[in-house]
Amino acid sequence: MDQLDYHMELSQSLKAMVNRGDFPHILFYGPSGAGKKTRVLALLRDIYGPAVEKVKVEHKQFKVGSTTVEIPILSSAHHLELNPGDAGNRDRDVVQELIKEIAASAPLPTSSSGDTSDWKPFKVVVLNEVDNLSKEAQHALRRTMEKYITTCRIMMTCNNACRVIAPIRSRCLCVRVAAPSAAQIAAVLQATARKEAVTLPPLLAEKLAAQAHGNLRKALLTLEAARVAQYPFDPKGEVRQADWEAFIDGVAADCVREQSPRKLGEVRNKLYDLLAHCIPPDMIMERLTRALLVKLKHDPPLLQMEVLHHAALYEVRMISGSKAIFHLEAFIAKFMAVYKRHLFTSFGG
Amino acid sequence: MAERAVPWVEKYRPRTVTDVAHQTEVVDTLRKAVETRNLPHLIFYGPPGTGKTSTILACARDLYGSDFKKRVLELNASDERGISIVRNKIKSFAMVAVNAKTNAEGQSIPPYKLIVLDEADSMTTDAQSALRRTMETYCRITRFCIICNYVSRLIPPITSRCAKFHFKPLPKQATLDRLKMIAAAEGVGCSDRVFALIEEQSEGDMRKAIQMMQSLHRLAMDGEIAEQAVLDISGAVPAETVRALIAGCQQPNAFKQIQAEVDALLLQGYPAGQLLAQLSGEVVSSATLPDVAKGVISKGLAEADKHLVDGANEYLQLLNVFAIICRSAAPAAA
Ligand SMILES: Nc1ncnc2c1ncn2[C@@H]1O[C@H](COP(=O)(O)OP(=O)(O)OP(=O)(O)O)[C@@H](O)[C@H]1O
Ligand SMILES: [Mg+2]
């Protein structure tokens, strides 16, 4: 926990809490790249010491009825970590089996050292991205979390706490993890650069931090990529955006420049490209909306709000539909119509 | 470190029916049932952390004492409870006849078994129909207790056969009393104001209240709990922030500013759903919003909430709600 560069206060007191054996299950929630997993690891180190860093990855097989599921599990002598989402619609069985296994093989006091002061009667199961855990699996966890609490503590992470059912939230200490601010990200980038003996111009650090939008992981990756592409850094250098983001910004520019069936066809092909590169449709919609709102920033707020209204509407249709492209395209067509009407009325067409 | 250290929620789980705080209606019925050894089929329903599971387990302990294991079958959402399990496992447990007898402690125990189906919200209707038949056939030698959060998830033929008990969110005083009892036993430093804040944040969920108090006690390194600390871990957006947002929407040309603020809130990790809930409270009680605007906004909030549950994008939904507030609240917007 000491290695975390921000939110020191909460970290210190969490540490004090887990050092007593009677801490509850914990749910960390907050935006991606905010440092939820880092926090979990730091807590584990505080509970068990460096032994938790000796991890192995195994592909564990679970027999469920007549089928077998295989999912990767990261484990040390004291903990297990997995993404229950990897188990697809078998997540319920996998999670239950793991916890019951742990309960059945409850850790015994280490007799070899003769010193039991460090001995913990429980293991920790880390479940990542529990907002993707099926409702069934979540319900199944309820009584299990209570029954096996002496032998098994659960630490969960998720982006959206509202997708975790109320009975589970009631059983956890819910800890909000805020994304680091741009200044904090810049500081971490500088610290990393120093460790790697790289000179990072402050201006560039700021730009990288601003663009990461609170996502520390992303900022670090971009720094890494920038270093490979060009080092020493140009102090006034531009920061390259992730390709897909730049690409969507281009799509937004297209839509504002020309509203015609021909352009719609072109844009449609670009959207297809994005989907083919496995960019999640809701991220496309969000980025596209943000980009359009930036383009319209000098237009009347009512127009911006109308565009936003349609974006929210078409995104909802998209998640309940099966073909994302239809809804993305329909949104673009709607945008073009709205924007064209606006141009006509405001310039007396 | 204590060897079997468990969180206080488990440590202070009621052991006997009389331990259960509040829930007087069910407690009275069960106390009588334990005395007369006469138990109806039961349905417990209500929100999380109000004592449903604790109550039936305590009742079973009171009834059977050391014969608990032999007489009680407890199945919850982690157990397979499909139609075949109902027809086999549950039925075979239900059909075994038992006699009234005296257990090891010399307590006389009644001539029936108890099957507890906890967390029954997720049971299929088919499984429930099968269950209903088992209930009918073996009602003389087996009692059922079915527990769920929403009674509407159960089929009418089942609900009509049981005595239904609604576990309500715990009233203020009941929560405060229990918190103070535990605080005294554990040596928690806590002012009356802090107790009140914890109770307020727990929203009638006793589990949450106890858990919060323990966490706060530990986070304060076993020292005095500060008021601010309660607000920090409650997960709620500070009330002033929510009010300032609504006031901001009533300024001309607010939309641009709001975009930045929505971004900032989401980056701080507040779930959009949480914000919607708080917004709703503030909007309804707002003194500056006209009634028509309140109606329009409430409708927008409800729709956004539904969409979020369906998995819609948080940024788009939340920003759209604020756009609705801007449009309906702005002074004479063009
Ligand atoms: N009425 C109550 N009196 C005393 N303690 C309570 C009461 N309700 C809840 N608690 C405390 O909360 C904990 C959880 O209660 P319990 O398991 O009975 O909740 P539940 O109603 O079954 O909730 P869920 O719907 O989430 O399963 C208990 O261990 C106990 O510490
Ligand atoms: Mg329960």
From TrEMBL, chain A:
CDD domains: AAA. GO terms for molecular function: DNA binding; DNA clamp loader activity. Pfam families: DNA_pol3_delta2, RCF1-5-like_lid, RFC_C. The lineage of its organism: Eukaryota, Haptista, Haptophyta, Pavlovophyceae, Pavlovales. It is found in: Nucleus. One of its GO terms (biological process) is DNA repair. SMART domains: AAA (SM00382). Residues 22-183 form the AAA+ ATPase domain. It comes from the Eukaryota. The keyword Protein biosynthesis does not apply. The keyword Nucleus applies. Keywords: DNA replication, Nucleus. Belongs to the activator 1 small subunits family. This is AAA+ ATPase domain-containing protein.
TrEMBL record, chain B:
InterPro entries: AAA+_ATPase (IPR003593), ATPase_AAA_core (IPR003959), DNA_pol3_clamp-load_cplx_C (IPR008921), DNA_Rep/Repair_Clamp_Loader (IPR050238), P-loop_NTPase (IPR027417), Rep_factorC_C (IPR013748), RFC_lid (IPR047854). Gene3D superfamilies: 1.10.8.60, 1.20.272.10, P-loop containing nucleotide triphosphate hydrolases. GO terms for biological process: DNA repair; DNA-templated DNA replication. Residues 38-170 form the AAA+ ATPase domain. One of its GO terms (molecular function) is DNA clamp loader activity. Keywords: ATP-binding, DNA replication, Nucleotide-binding, Nucleus. Pfam families: AAA, Rep_fac_C. One of its GO terms (cellular component) is nucleus. Transmembrane segments: none annotated. It comes from the Eukaryota. The keyword Nucleotide-binding applies. The keyword ATP-binding applies. SMART domains: AAA. Its main location: nucleus. CDD domains: AAA (cd00009), HLD_clamp_RFC (cd18140). It is found in: Nucleus. PANTHER family: REPLICATION FACTOR C / DNA POLYMERASE III GAMMA-TAU SUBUNIT (PTHR11669), REPLICATION FACTOR C SUBUNIT 4 (PTHR11669:SF20). Belongs to the activator 1 small subunits family. This is AAA+ ATPase domain-containing protein. The lineage of its organism: Eukaryota, Haptista, Haptophyta, Pavlovophyceae, Pavlovales.
